[in-house]
Amino acid sequence: MTDLTNKSVTTALSGSSVLRVGKVPTGFWYALPILALLVLGFLAPMLLVVLYSFMPRGTFTPWGSPTLENYIDIVEQNFYISFGWSLWLAFLSTAILLIVAYPLAVAIKRAAPNRALILTVLIVAPLFVAENIRLQGWVLFLDKAGVLDGGLNAMFGVGTGSLVTNVPVIVFGIVYIYLPFMLFPMILGLSNVPPDVREAASDMGATRWRMFRDIELPLAAPGILIGSLLCFVISLGAFSEAKFLGKGVIVTIAQDIESAFTFGQNWPRGSALSVLVILLAGSAVYIAMRRMDLEKMLGRRE
Amino acid sequence: MAGSTILELKSVNKYFGDFAAVERVSLSIAEGEFFTIVGPSGSGKTTLIRMLVGMDKPTHGDILLRGERINDTPAHMRPTCMVFQSLALFPHMTVGENVEYPLKCRGTDKAERRRRAEECLGLAHLSTDYYERPVAKCSGGERQRVALARALCFDPEILFFDEPLSAIDYKLRKMLEKEIKDIQRETGKTFVYITHSLEEAMIMSDRIGVMRDGRLVQVGSPREIYKAPESRFVSEFMGEVNILPVTPADGKLMCEPLGLAFDPPPGEAIRAGSLIVRPEDMRFVNGEQPTNTVIQGEIFNEYLLGSRVQYQVRAKGVTLLVERLRDADTPDRNIELSFAPEDSMLFSE
Questions:
Q1: pTM of the model
Q2: Which ipTM value was assigned to this complex?
């Protein structure tokens, strides 16, 4: 530390560079707190998970002799079903979220500032209530003899029956919970579409559809892409929706991981499953980011 | 030059709530004309051009294009287009894609699009090498030209400009002003230009309309606007002027601050108001007999304005501006000033 201080003093005195301390860019020091947090809170546990995934079944230490038996187990047993469900749910929810969130994002973007604020607050408000509680609320509302069914029965003598315990209601739950994660990046993306550029396109003869395709979509693409990735990745790990709304009609990969760590008491298997999910999510992000050059879309680079 | 009427405005109004941004503007613009609407910021000129382009609708009144009412025709259905103040280029496209965009909207095939785009780039003095270049890599001046080329590629009946040169440095602006004028002559198109700079308007226009507080206060050729402004506002808008507050006194115009009475401009009735004299019409008295009352003053500053020199003269605490050619002799510190009655203008304001 004394060494560093001395160095910074000399550079300051020599006047060569005020913004640098030694050879480390200033940005490094600013990034240090988050870097420490990421290393301790993200990288270290992940490494641990990777290590565990190569341990023999049912061990509770990461220091045994490495083996591939967990991965072999996963391939041999029918885990592909829960993987398949998770992937399908993530795809479907992301697609629905795209369609649902886009008009809303456009409307909020065009609304007068005070109205946009009210709309934003209304959309953010549910985030203050825990996800599980909100989902249980939906269960109470949709279940047999719940608020909807019971209410209709009491008033008209006909009810809806149970609307939970099926796949569509799980998708509904995911879409409902993750809407803000799609919406806000999308609004941010739409901020990249200057109003005068839209007007210019219209002035040049572009119809609404053409403007959407040629101007809005490409310019808003970074935000839309980030929103989609966010929703895809987190709904890949979705858990509560299938558990509460689906009541076990299907099992997602996140549920498999949970039971491996809890009931199963098989940490290595849970770790191996986690590693596969991380790889899946990681490659989705990688492919999307590689195919779409963010900086190019933002017009900052050739 | 002046052909048949292409654009006609009949008492066009635009209200935002109770506020009249544009009020009773009537105007007709001839085919092939370079018409400039000039006014200070907030005078309603941008609101007016937005209605002419189709991005806003008038509250009352009619806009006729070749005799056909176009009030409710949206911008993308009109055969006119505009060069925006911000240029509004499509940032994610190349120069070529920007320029040929109007043709793409019309479904023109690729080869023809490129041919036309290159032709328009040429008109805007950009080489065809720019076709593949991303807009993001163009300099400010190049972007101006791209915006111009894009508008030309549209091949509009009327080409509108909304202060496109207001954000460029002086030298480039002077060059582009002339180029825009040249392009207008070359293509024979009707150009309607908006600016807050009367200097710019003077250089380019066949006719100028001066706007103030949402109204068109005077329409005429640059020469008419310069020589015969109809109001104190227009005369002041032309540039720096000497304004002498006057009251009637024995058949003359009495200027209290100077304690001097002047002859009125020929044909003007004696009345209270402002007597306006341009700096270049103020003369130092040397030799020849002045035709109006002489003002005693003292030079306390001078500014070089290129080929001319502007003197600030103080006379009884009133500051007067005098402009002369630079190569004229250096005057003495204490001088006598005068102006011919026919070079002064009297307004009741």
A1: 0.79
A2: 0.82
